Amino acid sequence: ATDGKPLPAFTGGSHVIVQMSDGDNQYSNAYSLLSSPHDTSCYQIAVRLKENSRGGSRFLHQQVKVGNRLTISTPNNLFALIPSARKHLFIAGGIGITPFLSHMAELQHSDVDWQLHYCSRNPESCAFRDELVQHPQAEKVHLHHSSTGTRLELARLLADIEPGTHVYTCGPEALNEAVRSEAARLAIVADTLHFEQ
């Protein structure tokens, strides 16, 4: 905030809409908040530069500089944790890790159990890898890299979930579809499955 006051409160999984203006082009993109909901002194987002960007990510990477002012919405949450869940199982792929960073921060002082499985091609393409391996609860973080033979065994993971577990998935559509398909095969209750696009 430009006045130094705390920003509006948010919960893990929230996003903001960033408004951008580049001459005659206007962009309005949603980005997950990855900072801790316990600290509203600032919001943090991560923006992957897409090769086929229609403008928003390219604009943020190439035009925005430190000190520029951007207009954002108040946080909105379409991917919130379910309060009644006994355990939260997070499945992330690629830049889909971002909403889980705020979920993990929200749960840091909670008694509710959680586990993260993060899929990437290789360790080098694993966004926030250093933060994840140094997380205070790093034993709950599992990194899967297809190039090193540590690919996620989704069927086994979902077959072993405990009653009361809610499954949250964010990543490429292929990952979302794999989770949907395997969950259907295992007759996992649809209400316990949550997807962020």
From TrEMBL:
This is Oxidoreductase. It holds the Pfam family DmmA-like_N. InterPro entries: DmmA-like_N, FAD-bd_FR_type, FNR_nucleotide-bd, MRET, Riboflavin_synthase-like_b-brl. Residues 1-82 form the FAD-binding FR-type domain. Keywords: 2Fe-2S, Flavoprotein, Iron, Iron-sulfur, Metal-binding, Oxidoreductase. It comes from Escherichia coli. GO terms for molecular function: 2 iron, 2 sulfur cluster binding; metal ion binding; oxidoreductase activity.
